[in-house]
Amino acid sequence: MKDYIEERAINIAVYIIDNNATVRQTAKAFGVSKSTVHKDVTSRLMQVNPTLARQARTVLDVNKSERHIRGGLATREKYAHQHIEE
Predict the structure, then answer these.
(1) Low-confidence spans in the chain with pLDDT less than 50
(2) Which of 9, 14, 54, 62 is deepest in the core (most CB within 10 A)?
């Protein structure tokens, strides 16, 4: 694996852990796709730093389990603003 990919995978994991970030937020911050973030954390990082990979994966699993709640809150917020404007 190329050095810059290993470094990116480590930086992505540290960002996720420090900011409790989602895959989408991380992808935007690093200018890569969501698929790249996921691949870096789940596959590439396990080869480089398994402990860091597990920590980042834990954060992502929590975010994934809560995403339906965040989506519902965003929808509620959207329709609350539409009702006020009418």
Answers:
(1) none
(2) 9
